[in-house]
Amino acid sequence: MLLAGAVDHACLWIWGGTKAKVGLLQTIRGDAYAMAILNLLLLPLHLLSLVPILGILASLAATAALLVGLVFKGMALARMHRTDLWRGICATFTPFLALCCLGLAAALALPALLLGR
Questions:
Q1: How many CA atoms does the CB half-sphere of 89 hold within 13 Å?
Q2: Considering its fold, how many domains does the chain have in total?
Q3: What domain range is 31 assigned to?
Q4: CA distance 52 to 107
Q5: Displacement of CA 5 from its chain's centroid (Å)
Q6: Whose CA is closest to 10, among 70, 60, 2, 47?
Q7: Helix/strand/coil (H/E/C) assignment for every residue in the chain
Q8: pLDDT below 70 — which residues of the chain?
Q9: Longest dimension (CA), the chain
Q10: What was the pLDDT predicted at 117?
Q11: Closest-CA residue to 91 (of 34, 21, 20)
Q12: For the packed helices 54-81 and 2-14, what is the interaxial angle rounded to 10 degrees?
């Protein structure tokens, strides 16, 4: 939770959403609220994934719920830091997009590195 809060606070700082009197503690608190709501939302979906036919549909619903959870976390961060809504949402999607770009770069670079030997 502390690491996720620090990463979200850094991303919020990158997007210009931090204020002078609102610090890391508010970011961690906003993350905790959003994670609690998301876990309550995902619990029935994980239980439904145990049913053979409903497992695929529950997995798709869980993926959609995770994206909605990221938006909710961005809304919570924007509210806690008293900044624009788009800054909070962009701050929560920044680590996700950065990891996607790193994965794509690794997927493109790995065959080139293996063929170079």
A1: 9
A2: 1
A3: 2-115
A4: 32
A5: 11
A6: 2
A7: CHHHHHHHHHHHHHCCCCCCCCCHHHHHHHHHHHHHHHHHHHHHHHHHCCCCCHHHHHHHHHHHHHHHHHHHHHHHHHHHHCCCHHHHHHHHHHHHHHHHHHHHHHHHHHHHHHHCC
A8: 117
A9: 54
A10: 66
A11: 34
A12: 60
State residue 96's pLDDT score. 93
For tokens 């790995």, the residue is 110
Task: Report the distance separating Cα 105 and Cα 6, nearest Å.
Answer: 25
What are residue 17's phi and psi, to 5 degrees?
Answer: -105, 0
Between helices 2-14 and 24-48, what is the axis angle to 10°?
A: 120
Q: Contact, 46 vs 19, CB < 8 A?
A: no
User: Whose CA is closest to 34, among 60, 66, 63, 59?
Assistant: 66
At 18, phi and psi to the nearest 5? Answer: -90, 145
CA distances for 30 relative to 10, 81, 85, angstroms:
14, 9, 14
C-alpha 71/C-alpha 62 separation (Å) is 14
